Amino acid sequence: MIDPQEPAPTAAYGPPEVMRPARLPVRSGPGRLLVLAAVFVCAACGLVYELELVALASYLTGDSVTQSSVVLSVMVFAMGLGALLAKRLRCRAAVGFGAIEAGLALVGGCSAMALYACFAWFGQSRSVLVGFSLVIGVLIGAEVPLLMTLIQRVRQQDAGGAVADLFAADYVGALVGGLAFPFLLLPVLGQLTGALATGTVNAVAGGALVLWLFRRDLTRRARRRLLAVNALVLVLLAVAVLLVAPFERAARHAVYGSAARVVLQTGVQEVVMTGGAGPGGGAGHARKGSGGPLALYLDGRLEVSADDERGYHRALVHPAVAGGPHGRVVVLGGGDGLAVREVLRHRAVRSVTVVELDPGVSDLARTDPGLSALNRHALDDPRVRVVTADAFDWLRAASARCGRRCRGPYDVIVSDLPDPRMTAGTKLYSQEFYGLVARLLAPDGRLAVHAAAPEARPRVFWTVESTLRSAGLATVPYEAPGRRGGESARPVSGGGAGRAAAGTRYWGFILAGHHARDLDTAPSSRPPSAARAVLPDGARPLSGARIGGLPPSTLMHPRYG
Q: Where is this region: Disordered (predicted)?
């Protein structure tokens, strides 16, 4: 039995090594606040790294839901792993925390450059994304046990109170980092410099805490080594900041195949334009100094190629506009002005409303010599009005203004929107979206929709068609030939003209309206005087190839993947 008069083991032998009071240069109260401040800063930096990986992965691959799931799940798993591994460092918590913060600052700060470099020069970045998520997650997870040890060594308190204080500082720091990324770092510094600046803050905060507040816990040798490591990390990050501009130029050249003529971060997306600078260059002809035919990229995806955009936009616009009344037209997307150019070829058009999410694209379409020449200054036409808005929100507001008994004020609606497989574009190909379109479409009006390539992604194409029919619209699916292949390209979204790996690429479109009679595309089925939605040369209807039984896509159950 244990004698009740015998002192407890902790009283007899003193506190465990990891819980011995730290010898601080300040009192325990200010020291504890300094530790919590370090927790705050490190949490903010950690969340910035996480958001940076999610954003870059979404930009480079396009599927933000999948990429966010991969980054978050791997990182959370790695944080648990890091917390377990950190148990071995608790006996030397100060030096362990300093080394971890130096490593996290270097890896997290350079992660954006590494991912972009892999995408630019090797064409893929998914495995690198998983690797960085794993390493950063392990390092972030290792912070918490070490910080818990340090805060307890500053001043002993009950475990519940220590955990509450630690996580309060951690969560508030995460809030600040989460808000700083989209509203400060991304628009002011950009992806690469923002990550490097975050790494610098991380290294300074971690190094200052250990090398000043807990310096008496370190041996002279440990202090020198930790100081050297932190200095090296800061030097490497500073050098990387100086190299950001030439690195971006070289990477863009590798990605786009030629020097980028226009690079614009609009707050919505990154806009890059190559070629088309010389006389006639916007029309697809290479001239001296133009850099070749114009190409417009949004977040790294080819949207417009002057080589083949004309065939794409004619196939999208003319069957809808020429098939009946077309006095009032709406173009959803199409801020580049190219679809509007085709609409304005029809003299009976009285007004065109362009609903574009990114004002930077429409401004570029007006001011850039190459792009404005390509769209024939369509956005400067007095009949054209450009509205900066999300297409879904604009349709909902317009439908509300129209009222319950609205018969549809628009003769033609052209949907020139991002690819349905992208998360941002999924709602723009939903049953709810097309229900709003149907309300605004005149009784004899027509809707033209760009869908996926029928041969390359048949289930996506026919899901769009099924979704249109579920909204009560009659449909005529058709395809039109693009340019011949032989050249490779990255994934193409929305209004862009892509290139197939071989052979001829066919773009997929769907013509829709309230009644099937208003969508007649057969050349001999109507008198010559009647309006008819004649398909362009080379286009062919696809009704016979329909994949049956596909459910519609809704906001709550998107079917595109």
A: 518-561
Residue pair 144/172 in contact (Cβ under 8 Å)? The answer is no
- Pairwise CA distance, residues 206 & 41, whole Å: 9
Q: pLDDT over 90 for what percent of the chain?
A: 53
Contact predicate 286/293, CB 8 Å: yes
Q: CA 427, CA 420: separation in Å to the nearest integer?
A: 8
Does residue 63 have a pLDDT over 70? Answer: no
Closest CA to 315 of 118, 449, 500, 152: 449
Domain boundaries, the chain: 13-253, 260-301, 308-545
Tokens of 33: 């606040």
Q: Please provide the DSSP assignment of 309-372 as one string.
A: HHHHHHHHHHHHHTTS--SEEEEEE-TTSHHHHHHTTSTT--EEEEEES-HHHHHHHHH-HHHH
419 catalytic, yes or no? no
pLDDT digits (tens, 9 = 90+) for 487-537: 333 333 333 333 333 456 789 999 999 988 878 655 544 444 344 557 877
Q: Do domains 13-253 and 308-545 have the same CATH topology?
A: no
Helices (DSSP H) in 155-183: which residue ranges? 159-180
Let me know: does 543 contact 476? Beta carbons within 8 Å. Answer: yes
Kindly write down the DSSP assignment for every residue of 207-224, as one continuous string: HHIIIIITGGGS-HHHHH
Are the beta carbons of 129 and 53 closer than 8 angstroms?
yes
| CATH superfamily of the 308-545 domain | Vaccinia Virus protein VP39 (3.40.50.150)
CB atoms within 10 A of CB 229: 18
Q: Is 377 annotated as a binding residue?
A: no
Tell me if 513 sits within 8 A of 446, measured CB to CB: yes
Query: Is residue 431 annotated as involved in ligand binding?
Result: no
For the record, the structure tokens of 113 come out as: 């450059």
* pLDDT classification of 192: cutoffs 50, 70, 90: very high
Is 3 marked within a binding site?
Answer: no
Tokens of 341: 């150019």
Task: Return the CATH fold of 13-253.
Answer: Growth Hormone; Chain: A; (1.20.1250)
User: What is the rounded distance in angstroms from the CA atom of residue 512 to the CA atom of residue 518?
Assistant: 9
- Buried b vs exposed e over 22-31: b needs ≥16 C-beta within 10 Å? bebeeeeeeb
383 and 461 Cβ atoms separated by less than 8 Å? no
8-state DSSP, 172 = H
**Longest Cα pair distance anywhere in the chain, in angstroms?**
112
The residue with tokens 């500073």 is 238
Tokens 């989460």 — which residue? 178
> Is 527 buried (19+), middle (13-18) or exposed (0-12) by CB count in 10 A?
exposed
Q: Known binder of ligand: residue 269?
A: yes
- Per the rule left: phi > 0, alpha: psi between -120 and 50, beta: everything else, 334 is left
User: One of 63, 308, 411, 416 is an active-site residue; which one?
Assistant: 416
Residue 47 banded pLDDT, cuts 50, 70, 90: very high
pTM: 0.78
Strand 474-484 vs strand 540-541: parallel, antiparallel, or unpaired? antiparallel
Sign of CA dihedral 250, 252, 258, 260: negative
